């Protein structure tokens, strides 16, 4: 490629990475804010998150279109092709994180008039959400720095999130059994917890994409939790 | 392009469409079988579905890789580029359908030892699943025939699925309030219903991709349900 084309190609990649960084920041804020909206029953904040999601969807479409057009126009070779495919995949994962945070915000609105369960019912969710926020931040930093080792640390920590989800699931069922007036609220909390757990799964997807981007290899080893079918009978949560 | 290249290019597209047809058939069976496994508490059938999902994941990766390589090698123009992007998107949606069906199968295993709620608790889910199976079949047929009109019919019918989900959600909460022994089982049914509703969303995504493929335009009009935030307070289900 001529020098001019190479430079404009680098500018394309740079632009994609910038858009993804913007998307990542937005998705982190959406997850944090949706948890606050739920815990404080702040419907105004919840509505803000619901509206913000459209911008994230638009950015994802833009990243996808730009990356595909770059592939079609420039016929990139292995390394650069990987960079573009990774951008498409990571943007898709971040967009899903936004959807899940938006769903938590919608549930914050839905339960605003409901009977209030004991405060401890939301403490576990808050804790789990904070852990996942840290995972999301770390994996986005790992992407920005093309740091495969850091990405793999995030990937390995997802087990903790899954364990926390299973324990929270059991806890919420207990509150429901104790007092039927808790059922509606706690059901929404169960779905919120599932959303947070799935956001955790998207951070591991992003970690896997970083591994592919940096090493050129797909991770064929499955996440450990995908192989836990033997212990599933004991698990109320039915992960994955 | 020379005649030879055009023919080999057509063979690439043909191969992708064949893989997607295979994926579509698999995902339809997985949804149908997972519902049967849940209703009959057939853990052997459930395990079969859980194992089958790996094949679907592999096919999706293959479609994605082949489509991207075709884009990189052949620099397709507008129409053909759309065909390849659509293949990537539809394969991703079908793969998600498989994941959701697998999750239903896992829940069928998880509840196999649980207290049995009244049979009517599963009747609503069965009904909803049958409707979504028909939607999935119709949208895959629409893709095979590049029939945009048929795709739009599927897209419009998703409202029925959402309404059914909301009513099923309320019904299951009622069983939980009637008898605390129903709580664990019905919670799993709630998640299964949510999974079926989300499979419905993936069929509308596929319908939107067919619209884009045939007309060259993205659908900028949102699905009606995305704008129901005003009635959300009354909705326990917090769709979307």
List the helices and strands and how they pair.
The structure is a homodimer of 240-residue chains.
Chain A: H1 3-40, H2 43-74, H3 78-110, H4 120-144, H5 148-178, H6 183-215
Helix pairs in contact in A: 1-2, 1-3, 1-4, 2-3, 3-6, 4-5, 4-6, 5-6
CATH superfamily of chain A: Phosphate transport system protein phou homolog 2, domain 2
CATH fold category name of chain A:
Methane Monooxygenase Hydroxylase, Chain G, domain 1
CATH class of chain A reads Mainly Alpha
Number of strands of chain A: 0
Query: Stretches of chain A where pLDDT falls below 50 for ≥5 residues?
Result: 221-240
Class by SSE composition of chain A:
mainly alpha
Q: For the report, how would you describe the main beta sheet of chain A?
A: none
CA-based shape of chain A: elongated
Query: What is the CATH architecture descriptor of chain A?
Result: Up-down Bundle
- The SSE order of chain A reads HHHHHH
Helix content of chain A: over 70%
